[in-house]
Specification:
alpha/beta; Rossmann fold; Arc Repressor Mutant, subunit A; globular
């Protein structure tokens, strides 16, 4: 049986998920599934998960169900991470005792993660002042108007500001949860969690929240083999014309259908794939930078460093020092 990661990773594994009256069950369930279920390899959860009631219960939830929660806001005092699901009503003020508990937790170094309209709860604490944040695309204007000191990112999946992570609506909350697992335990643990939940292992936070046009069965099925090929071999030097030929489309049709299916351009999508491959190699191997750059399709270490700085505000060397597995750092 592998050792539990808590034996090697020095951080507070206590993760508390907030519950409240008129609870958003999808966002709440997303956090429970991502953080509370057993890791398939370890046969135990990665985090020590508990639920804290933000107010006296029983708590009503969408769908005509009730939730009885044993713990209250006192659980936040020992938490290493707090998750706030989507708030019940943007027009309803957040209780002062909840705001005080969140501010106190943040002051002692606790991380706070929000899903969908949960960002409004975090913004009400004042902790997001001068920081970047996101929420569901339908609410981003309301967030910007209510909290003009917050730098609202209106179309991204999630924003990682270190100890404050905000995510957009519904499924993008799952992306943020997997991002946090990856940050804490590495890509292998995040990939195991993604496979268990039958979801893509990682999407960059900067991807678009929604796609303007519906994806037809034909376009999705005809692009799938090409996307799988590019994911498997990010060092493949295919240009747009070659991609279009591989998908049996004209250049114009290919670009249109690629954007319909992914919400971005082939070059931006492929850059994201290559960066994720580079991050995984930096985390899990001791390969030198030139070889990592070559295997990921960047060509040279200088190009790899350029894209890391531009997109991740870091260097490959700094990233490796921060996220490499403990046994590789020895």
């Amino acid at each position: 049986m592998p050792k539990h990661p808590s034996d090697a990773i020095p951080f507070n594994r206590r993760l508390v998920i907030l519950a409240y009256d008129q609870l958003c069950t999808f966002e709440f369930g997303t956090a429970i599934e991502a953080f509370g279920r057993n890791d398939p390899q370890l046969e135990s959860p990665l985090y020590d998960v508990s639920v804290a009631a933000a107010e006296p219960g029983p708590l009503r939830a969408f769908g005509g169900v009730q939730i009885c929660v044993e713990g209250g806001l006192e659980l936040l005092e020992q938490a290493g991470t707090i998750v706030i699901p989507g708030w019940r009503d943007l027009a309803q003020e957040v209780p002062c005792d909840l705001l005080d508990a969140l501010k106190a937790a943040s002051q002692r170094g606790c991380r706070i993660v929000t899903i969908c309209a949960g960002t409004f709860v975090l913004a009400a604490t004042g902790l997001l002042a001068g920081r970047r944040a996101t929420t569901h695309w339908h609410h981003h204007q309301a967030l910007a108007q209510a909290y003009p000191d917050v730098q609202v990112e209106p179309s991204v999946l999630y924003v990682d500001e270190g100890n404050l992570l905000t995510s957009a609506g519904c499924a993008s909350g799952l992306d943020a949860c997997l991002h946090l697992i990856r940050r804490d335990f590495g890509p292998e643990a995040a990939n195991r969690a993604a496979r268990r939940m039958v979801t893509p292992p990682h999407r960059l936070g900067c991807q678009a929240q929604y796609i303007e046009q519906a994806v037809t069965v034909r376009s999705a099925s005809s692009l799938a083999p090409l996307l799988d090929k590019l994911r498997a071999s990010p060092d493949n030097g295919l240009d747009i014309e070659s991609m279009a030929r591989s998908a049996h489309m004209s250049r114009r049709t290919f670009l249109r259908r690629f954007h319909d299916a992914t919400g971005t351009t082939p070059s931006n999508w492929l850059l994201g794939v290559r960066l994720e491959r580079a991050k995984a190699l930096l985390e899990t191997s001791t390969l030198p930078m030139p070889l990592i750059a070559e295997q990921c399709g960047f060509g040279t270490a200088a190009t790899l460093r350029h894209h890391f700085r531009k997109n991740l505000n870091s260097s490959p060397s700094c990233y490796r020092k921060q996220f490499a597995r403990a046994e590789l750092a020895l």
